[in-house]
Structures
1.
Amino acid sequence: MLALDIENLDVTFPGLASPALAIGRLSIEAGSRVAIMGASGSGKSTFVNVVTGLERTRQGQIRWNGEDIAGFSESRRDRFRAANIGLVMQEFHLFPGLSALENVLLPARLAGAATAAAIERAHALLNTVELCRPGQKIETMSRGEMQRVAIARALLRKPGVIIADEPTASLDAESGEAVGDLILDLANAEGSTLIIVSHDQRLAGRLDRRITLSSGRISKDAITAAGEAA
Ligand SMILES: Nc1ncnc2c1ncn2[C@@H]1O[C@H](COP(=O)(O)OP(=O)(O)OP(=O)(O)O)[C@@H](O)[C@H]1O
């Protein structure tokens, strides 16, 4: 399980009058389940990009269990992300031409970590997400099924944190609900910290804490009823 501590973070882009993201201090406890909300352009994707190390930050600290990834080189950030962060994106980022199983295993293969145990876990995860045809080609799957493959892939290396950026936004209501349930159940079962960026009020209401961004700043940070009950 990973805890996140952010300090003095300031992300600016050329042409923007104010920072896309400015966070003085934010702590997310290991094992907690947090929703990141906010209007379009409020900095949600920038948040995901910097805390996962996809984007470099020039100012501030981003500590995962005390390790400041802001000070890492790009290749070290890539290795850290592959080993520790399970990323689920709105647009899945799966590879057509490959099967469901091959897609789940691809990042592990690229990292030289596709061991027999990983292959066994990939089969088990596909089973958990209720996909019973591991050999089915990605391009023949429905969008809800594709997102379930992406979830299985994100969990393969037992990440300490699952970060999902609008995981239900491109799905119909029913598939979106099923995918939301699945991410929550799997994060619970695996004991991963969970951070979900979403406009989906129902999904956000099932998490413990809701952080709202406005113009790149935290405008609200509240424990939800689900969090009070936990
Ligand atoms: N690479 C970039 N160069 C310039 N401006 C950028 C860049 N990336 C993001 N921005 C700007 O930073 C601000 C925050 O963008 P961000 O994508 O984080 O918002 P968001 O909350 O994820 O929005 P949405 O819900 O529409 O995806 C916006 O004003 C956006 O135009």
Note: The chain has eight helices and ten strands.
2.
Amino acid sequence: MSILSIQNISKKFGAVQALSGVSFDVPQGAVYGILGPNGSGKTTLLGIVTDVLKADTGSFTLFDQAASARQRRQIGTLLETPNFYHYLSGYRNLEIAAAIKQRDKNDIARVLELCGLTARQHATFKTYSLGMKQRLAIASVMLGDPEVLILDEPTNGLDPAGIAEVRELVRNLAGAGKTIILASHLLDEVEKVCTHVAILRNGKLLLSGSVDVVISRHDYLELGAADNEALKSALLAYPGCTSVQLNGNVVVAVFNASPEPAQVNNYLAQQGIWLQHLQLRKKSLEKAFLEITNDPA
Ligand SMILES: Nc1ncnc2c1ncn2[C@@H]1O[C@H](COP(=O)(O)OP(=O)(O)OP(=O)(O)O)[C@@H](O)[C@H]1O
């Protein structure tokens, strides 16, 4: 089942084309990261999906059906930091949130436990660390046990400890079977928790799919031979090899798809080149992202 299927969504604000023809599918159980530089349209997209904004054109389905109020109740949304009362306890703040959202008060103990706040539930909000404050915000979203969570920049403004806490919580929620859609520009964080990504730039979708596939498009080989010049020439003639560069003692070869080291080795042996060094290198999502978003094509 597709939790969210976005089809060809476009949105303009005056002269600004915030989104143009964006389509992708979020499978059940995914931790789906929506990535993009500032102003790329992430918040606009989440706003449309959560009914805060209307798309100019295009459509989307939730749980394989046209979006309705019933389906929206299965989605917990955190688009901006909620206004908690600083002088009230975490527990009392959740009581107020439950009343506003018409969720059962009996669910409060469960979400506090889920978000690791049981021990501090009666302390006032103002005494919480930044990470605890954000975990309380996520606890509030989890009231009523929604199947899907939509989080906009959930680690924004947090210190490294807070980021780690929120990352752990997202992992736990995903482990419990929730589907999580989160917008972020913190690539390292996304790489650590997300199973899938959609990369936006200037409102256009550049790439979407599983993180492994997106990153593996940017795998490259490091090779070394007695004659690195002959190695370079042979590699340039290899199908799919797009660039070859001598970097110190090693030749770095980039391909248009993830290379198969054994096949490359075999091919080079047939050309009479015996390798002394062969290693498949993986780029981080951050590097892959920078290449994808900086690519003028
Ligand atoms: N209400 C609005 N009125 C006019 N322009 C808007 C409005 N909301 C967004 N925009 C513009 O639309 C584009 C996309 O903005 P959006 O906030 O969706 O990007 P974003 O990827 O979430 O950015 P950030 O990471 O900075 O939050 C930007 O150029 C922004 O200035």
Note: The chain has two domains: 2-215, 218-294.
3.
Amino acid sequence: MGSGIVIEGLNIHLGGKWILRDFSLTIKSGEFVGIIGPNGAGKTTLLKALLGLVPVAGGTITFPGTDRKAAGSSLVGYAPQSRQIDETTPLRAWDFVSFGLPHRFRPWLTGQDRRNVEEAMRVTDSERFADKAIGKLSGGERQRLFIAQALVRNPQILLLDEPTSNLDPGAQENLAAVVHSINQKLGITVLLVSHDVNLIAKYAHRILYITKGQYALGTVQQVLQANVLTRLYGAPVEVLKVGSKIIVSTAVADNLKTSICCHDNPEQGVLADVSL
Ligand SMILES: Nc1ncnc2c1ncn2[C@@H]1O[C@H](COP(=O)(O)OP(=O)(O)OP(=O)(O)O)[C@@H](O)[C@H]1O
């Protein structure tokens, strides 16, 4: 079961500049939130703040509904943005996943440890390459292992930083489906950073759109609106509807992909939950 996240008045100042200012939002237990926005907007910094890895200049982060009774469980599992693995690395996929276990560097594993590794590999559909060397696996296969490693301590929240970058469209879709299934079947709260709005629009319950100094949280229909994006970017952004898809003008929105897949008949002007 997932934990909720409540952020109130969060301020983060790094390298002489404000990255997040007066940032407040609530994420419900079991929710899947896609985080999107241009390079340098503060997406990774937000994940690191949730992990307690960056200094906070003000505000609070709490995790209501946390249940940490299960032995060996953790609150947050994290798969960071980029991890280079040399193709000659002589490490079995199974062993790589097991490095996410607590006390992994003691010389033995318990039966429960082994079951946790096997379950994490099962839910990420990576059991079939458990015995292969990680360096010989494809990018999509490695991403499944990174997620499995983040899951091996049964977290209540899963933070994934651009897990689909550098994957071909088919592998992106497969990986997003795996994350969706983890969220649906295990009830884990998921925050996934991506530059691919297609995937986020398809699977996330809500989108958190961050630009430098501004943000909006809401459903796809609430956030992917010309007036909302124009306000976030501080310059005109067009949102066009073509059949079941929405096309966003990239003229001012750096890193925003041209084509955004959304639902049929998006509701108009519903901004009740949007924080600006
Ligand atoms: N430890 C740090 N010290 C100083 N500045 C930092 C630090 N960490 C991040 N920053 C700066 O904070 C800003 C936000 O960085 P962050 O990595 O959160 O952006 P992002 O939205 O994840 O970008 P991208 O999409 O490129 O990954 C950037 O300008 C970055 O240079």
Note: Residues 256-276 have pLDDT under 50 and may be disordered.
4.
Amino acid sequence: MAETIIPKATAKRLPVYYRYLNFLANSGTTKISSTELSDAVKVDSATIRRDFSYFGALGKRGYGYDVVDLLNFFKKILNQDRLTNVGLVGVGNLGHALLNYNFRQANNIRISAGFDINPELAGTIQSGVPIYPMDEMIKQIKDQQIEIVILTVPIDAAQHITDDLVKAGIKGIMNFTPIRISVPSYVRVQNVDLATELQTLIYFLEHYGPTLKEPEA
Ligand SMILES: NC(=O)c1ccc[n+]([C@@H]2O[C@H](COP(=O)([O-])OP(=O)(O)OC[C@H]3O[C@@H](n4cnc5c(N)ncnc54)[C@H](O)[C@@H]3O)[C@@H](O)[C@H]2O)c1
């Protein structure tokens, strides 16, 4: 199952399905039709069926989907059946906002360690998370077996911190800095840029209006 190779667009929709199924399970719903799921997550049912088909048949014809079965399945795929510890490098404005956000409430993810060069921050606890000085970063990441790091440092610090993160054995970086960091092929980088997302939203509003669904990726 872990070896299933799926398109990026499908991978991006999996957490959306997961969140909604979690909501359904919590409210006691036991089954859902593909049309209901489609309406709720705003993804057309053909796309949902295609997404699910990458993982084999998950629904029964004429019955729809069993919510708990599907939820457990996505839990495994998204590693939500175990807690994922994430590191945060750069505890400034954006870093603080991310620390304050309780990832764990809906997703089994928590920021377990923060790192910052500012001596006033290092050695403190911010939003319940210990902040370490940079010279402890590699050791803490190894000791805590952190595999994913969120990068929220100024541009000029991004690459050399990335190089240290690679040395520490990190597997994935969520990069909020505006530069494209270089990593070896076995490390994955997810770039997040709110300005680009906003531009995309503006583009879709201008070209397709507020109610039409965006064309399939
Ligand atoms: N992707 C987005 O949508 C988005 C949105 C806002 C900001 N950003 C980017 O995120 C980054 C952080 O923005 P911010 O507003 O939080 O900045 P900030 O100045 O408030 O915070 C930066 C933090 O990094 C720390 N820092 C500086 N040099 C460091 C180093 N060498 N090692 C470790 N820590 C170091 C600082 O002490 C500070 O706490 C910037 O690169 C900014 O461009 C991206």
Note: The radius of gyration is 20 Å.
